[in-house]
Design brief:
96 residues, mainly beta, 2 helices, 5 strands, globular
């Protein structure tokens, strides 16, 4: 990180061991979205109840998902990054 970032860099929530970055590709309805994960897998992700009313998730949003242990093609959304945070993750090379 360079010194010329103007002090705008935030400490962002990074993935735990069982979480991966993902980009929302399609809204499926019924609190489900299609995501493309950083590990190259397309998954159906569930928006948990505590996020449904407070956080709006749209296509092209960058999110953190936790893939299910017993069904790898499904996941739960754990966190959504706003546009500035997603840009910072791209600048720092964490996501494409």
């Amino acid at each position: 990180m360079s010194d010329n970032d103007g002090g705008r860099r935030k400490n962002l929530r990074m993935p735990d061991d069982d979480e991966v970055f993902a980009t929302v590709t399609n809204m499926l309805g019924a609190n489900r979205v299609k995501v493309r994960c950083a590990d190259g897998t397309e998954r159906t992700a569930r928006i948990p109840g505590k996020m449904q009313k407070r956080i709006w998730i749209r296509e092209d949003d960058v999110v953190l998902v936790e893939p299910w242990d017993w069904q790898d093609e499904k996941a739960d959304i754990k966190w959504r990054y706003d546009k500035q945070e997603a840009d910072q993750l791209r600048d720092e090379g964490h996501i494409q």
